Amino acid sequence: xxxxxxxxxxxxxxxxxxxxxxxxxxxxxxxxxxxxxxxxxxxxxxxxxxxxxxxxxxxxxxxxxxxxxxxxxxxxxxxxxxxxxxxxxxxxxxxxxxxxxxxxxxxxxxxxxxxxxxxxxxxxxxxxxxxxxxxxxxxxxxxxxxxxxxxxxxxxxxxxxxxxxxxxxxxxxxxxxxxxxxxxxxxxxxxxxxxxxxxxxxxxxxxxxxxxxxxxxxxxxxxxxxxxxxxxxxxxxx
Amino acid sequence: xxxxxxxxxxxxxxxxxxxxxxxxxxxxxxxxxxxxxxxxxxxxxxxxxxxxxxxxxxxxxxxxxxxxxxxxxxxxxxxxxxxxxxxxxxxxxxxxxxxxxxxxxxxxxxx
Lengths: 238, 111
Description:
The complex is a heterodimer of chains A (about 240) and B (about 110).
Chain A: E1 5-15, E2 19-20, E3 23-24, H1 25-35, E4 41-45, E5 48-50, E6 56-58, E7 69-76, H2 78-91, E8 96-104, E9 124-134, E10 138-139, E11 142-143, H3 144-154, E12 159-169, E13 175-177, E14 188-195, H4 197-210, E15 213-223
Antiparallel strand pairs in A: 1-7, 1-8, 2-3, 4-7, 5-6, 9-14, 9-15, 10-11, 12-13, 12-14
Helix pairs in contact in A: 3-4
Chain B: E1 5-15, E2 19-20, E3 23-24, H1 25-35, E4 41-45, E5 49-50, E6 56-57, E7 67-74, H2 76-89, E8 94-106
Antiparallel strand pairs in B: 1-7, 1-8, 2-3, 4-7, 5-6
């Protein structure tokens, strides 16, 4: 299973009719990667292309349709790519292998036996962040509190809770209120977030850049225990 | 990240049923804070809770008696000035303060 963070992306270009031990080379490469438990690999057939032989391979010319370019891509950790490369180097007798740095943003497989929780255990000294805003505040067309919550999840922050106030005022000096006769949609909203200082620092910057006005309040807290309700669920509240 | 300023967070816990001169206590507290030039105040209603009378505050059919928390963030001296005023308004309840770092965000929407 791939983990979030830096990884290597390997791209291999071969011809569809390139052979390896009496079978297509691309199939042999995919089989090899499968046996080596690579997280995933994809072979795609091109529409047209040319290689160092300077012959255009295109589906429009019938004799050349069995000669289309195939691109195989897979992503693995730098160490795994190092292990796989000698064999791939031997297998590809006609083609191109390319490796580039990449960033894994999300790698999820449903129904996995023991999924790795995306965040570390949290215990001891931590920081509590409270973010104050209005319920009607927007960010790129969506509710700001929703957008902030999604961003925090992307950043693997341990947990966040959105509270709606019933009355309040802030820098804009107007009172947010609700009552039986006025159904306000601009009540005060507060999001409380708990995580370590290091994890929160980039989160504060991200949240700050999304807000037009509001207040961020930070305080020191002691985390007594972080309980995961269900092992297959990575969702925790704070 | 903008520089965080040292501040105080004040929390007032009481009941939604608490009143001051006929109107809800939380409204009176917010008005008093506004009058003192406090930067902001937010009132939250809890779902259920209990306090010093050990009576459980929960929604009733006819009257609202849920726990109320008012949170106020400002500079330490302004919070110190508000505490005696809030104390005078409240018959019972709890006042708690904590040290916090504040980041105030104020951007011109056109910017």
